[in-house]
Design brief:
By secondary structure, this protein is α/β, with parallel strands linked by helices. The protein is built from 14 helices and 19 strands.
Length: about 475
């Protein structure tokens, strides 16, 4: 066995050397090759045909990339500032992670499941549990899943069983939690459940509003008290994003959450933090750690940057046999790479006020301020529920900018303009909409972000001139 492992390790090292040489020419953005344009268009058409609708833009990768740069099928190279909606936190072509993936790929099974698994599934779950405990949350157990939605479904089932079948859920307005039948009704996006019969009762609270921090906090607490009084013992859990993702990259301070969490706990309602988008990319590995809320959490879900997904919960809420299962817990490659990512995040100098992620957000913040000051006509005031919406924001590696009054069509047009200029972004929020970035914080260098912000400024100004 040792001879086999040594041979595999040697082969993987040679493979990584070859990949490094192959990707050596990917050092900056570049336009596509004219002769390869039809090839990219063909693949985009095939995607639209098989899926039933076209992609937002033709991001069909060639399989090559390096760091924050990705090559598409037409040979173009672009800055990837959305990373599969936050999945590729270490960018593209990371030789360390690819080496881990290569060794995992020659294990005896591609997928690992609940009935039978190898050591990779155990290590992945152990690392996640250790990270949550290090962040101050007394998590007893961890159950991997193939997707964030499945992790959230498992979490919901754990909460409901622990609360003797209490059928209702508390969540915040503008939340997003997934697209299954049930999760689409918890999420506050009617378009995500159009034509889907209601499957769960949900009570929504207003989220923290920077335009009226005291008023929005008081309103949320009053609403929570009313909900709990109207449905005694009726709620299984209070699920929340500590930074709202699809809702507009809105963070809230600890002072907003604590009275709500205390009130929910007094009523016996379980506290569930959905960290599928926040995990790894704010000021701490878990956002609850950065807000010192670990003592409140009963269950937490993670995904995206971790490659595999999972739900973690306190030992007191461990479900009875039969509630959770799954033919697939995740792929051998995903859980192996996820374990390495957790190790790198823990030791890579990413976190804290002097960490690299905070440094990237300071650059973003400074550059946004400059862009708004230099192009004021592109940034009219935007009114939210209570008052003006900040023209840029987010936290850590969650970044958003709000030009053109947050108009959806204008933001979508800007996203496509940026794509043509060499930067892949997306949007979030609704009324207003925002330009959204989830950059590869594990590998993004400050000078790379500066280059990206230069292109953003150029494109915003050009669109403003075009009217």
């Amino acid at each position: 066995m040792s001879d086999y492992n040594a041979a595999v390790g040697s082969a993987c090292r040679l493979l990584m050397q070859s990949l490094a040489a192959s990707n050596a020419d990917i050092n900056d953005i570049r336009p596509g090759e004219e002769s390869a344009g039809p090839l990219l268009a063909e693949w985009a058409d095939r995607l639209a045909d098989v899926r039933g609708r076209p992609g937002f833009y033709p991001t069909i990768g060639s399989g090559r990339g390096k760091g924050a740069l990705v090559e598409l099928m037409d040979g173009s190279v672009k800055w990837d500032m959305i990373t599969g909606i936050g999945v590729h936190g270490f960018g593209h072509g990371d030789l360390d992670l690819m080496g881990v993936a290569a060794q995992a790929a020659v294990q005896d099974t591609v997928m690992q499941g609940n009935l039978q698994c190898n050591t990779e599934a155990v290590r992945f779950a152990e690392r996640l549990r250790a990270a949550a405990r290090a962040g101050g949350a007394d998590m007893g157990h961890c159950y991997p899943a193939c997707s964030g939605a499945m992790a959230n479904e498992n979490a919901l089932k754990v909460c409901m069983q622990a609360r003797d079948g209490a059928p209702r859920v508390i969540a915040f307005q503008d939340n997003f939690i997934g697209r299954t039948v049930t999760l689409s009704h918890i999420g506050d996006s009617p378009g995500h459940r159009e034509g889907v019969p209601q499957s769960i009762e949900v009570d929504l609270l207003p989220f923290w509003d920077p335009a009226d921090p005291d008023g929005s906090s008081a309103e949320a607490l009053d609403r929570l008290r009313s909900i709990l009084a109207a449905h005694p013992e009726g709620h299984s859990c209070f699920v929340m994003e500590l930074v709202q993702g699809e809702g507009g990259f809105t963070p809230a301070p600890r002072s907003f959450f604590v009275p709500l969490l205390e009130t929910a706990r007094e009523a016996g309602v379980l506290i569930w933090f959905d960290e599928i988008q926040t995990f790894g990319r704010t000021d701490r590995m878990f956002r609850f750690e950065g807000l010192d809320l670990g003592a409140y959490v009963d269950i937490v879900t993670v995904g995206k940057m971790t490659q595999g997904c999972a739900a973690l919960w306190r030992a007191a809420h461990n479900p009875r046999p039969g509630l959770l299962s799954g033919t697939f817990l995740g792929s051998t490659v995903a859980m192996s790479v996820g374990t390495r990512i957790l190790d790198r995040l823990a030791s890579g100098g990413y976190y804290g006020p002097d960490g690299s992620i905070a440094g990237l957000h300071r650059i973003f913040d400074d550059r946004c301020r400059d862009i708004v000051e230099r192009h004021p006509t592109c940034f009219p005031d935007v009114e939210g529920r209570r008052g003006p919406v900040p023209k840029w924001g987010g936290t850590g590696g969650m970044m958003r900018l709000t030009p053109f009054g947050g108009d959806r069509d204008a933001i979508a047009s800007l996203v496509r303009r940026l794509f043509d200029a060499g930067v892949i972004t997306f949007f979030c929020g609704h009324d207003p909409y925002h330009l959204r970035m989830l950059p590869p914080v594990g590998v993004l260098e400050p000078e790379h972000l500066e280059s990206v912000m230069d292109i953003i400024e150029t494109c915003v100004a050009a669109q403003g001139e075009d009217g």
